[in-house]
């Protein structure tokens, strides 16, 4: 596997640069791949009217192998909310 990988260059190529089980893939620069996460500041006000400064982070934070032949990789979208300045004990 991967023996058909032809070296050299980065970015999109007109000719496929990698072959795996008969399927040809081009080389792509990482800078051409869209960012897979975002974050936003969130103020949470609880039932006692206490305000919590937090940050919400969301995106594709993992991958899993799926399929009968385990031949497919699927993104795992997730989100998390964290205190921005947690109190130190």
How many structural domains in the coordinates?
A: 2
Q: Write down the overall geometry.
A: elongated
Describe the main β-sheet briefly. Answer: 3 strands, antiparallel
The structure class reads mainly beta
Query: Number of helical segments?
Result: 0
SSE order, one letter for each helix or strand: EEEEE
Cα distance spanning the termini? 53 Å
Fraction of residues in helix: under 10%
Biggest sheet, spatial arrangement of strands: 3-4-5
Mean pLDDT: 76
Outline the low-pLDDT stretches. 1-13
Query: Radius of gyration in whole Å, from Cα?
Result: 21 Å
Task: Say how many strands there are.
Answer: 5
As a percent range, the share of strand residues is over 45%
Kindly describe this structure.
- The protein has strands at residues 18-20, 23-25, 37-45, 51-66, 72-83.
- By secondary structure, it is mainly beta.
- The chain folds into 2 domains: 1-33, no CATH class; 35-89.
- The strands form 2 sheets. The chain has a 3-stranded antiparallel sheet, with no helix packed on it. A two-stranded antiparallel ribbon has the order 1-2.
- A hairpin with a 2-residue loop joins strand 1 (18-20) and strand 2 (23-25).
- The model is unreliable at 1-13 (pLDDT under 50).
């Amino acid at each position: 596997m991967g023996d058909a990988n032809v070296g050299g260059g980065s970015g999109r190529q007109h000719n496929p640069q990698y072959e795996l089980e008969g399927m040809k893939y081009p080389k792509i620069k990482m800078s051409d791949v869209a960012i897979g996460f975002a974050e936003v500041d969130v103020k949470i006000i609880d039932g006692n009217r206490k305000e919590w400064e937090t940050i919400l982070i969301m995106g594709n934070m993992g991958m899993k192998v799926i399929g009968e032949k385990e031949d497919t990789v699927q993104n795992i979208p997730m989100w998390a909310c964290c205190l921005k300045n947690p109190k130190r004990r």
